[in-house]
Amino acid sequence: MQIESIKDLVEEIKKRRNELGISQVQLAQLCDLSVNGISKFESNAGEREVKLSTLFKLSEVLGFKLVLDFENE
Fold this sequence. Notes:
Layout: H1 6-19, H2 24-31, H3 35-43, H4 52-62
Helix pairs in contact: 2-3
């Protein structure tokens, strides 16, 4: 799946968390992040900057591969 916006990425992360039956509290604990941070991340999709390290933590815990592709135009 190719995702081209932070908003779409956040929606996919939230969808995957729900599919796995993981609460925001559990996800925060598994990723060593704050519950408040997870909540804000999911509710303000596309309105906040997200650290790349956070995205990699989330992807690892939720079982998906995050691949970055850089193109020169």
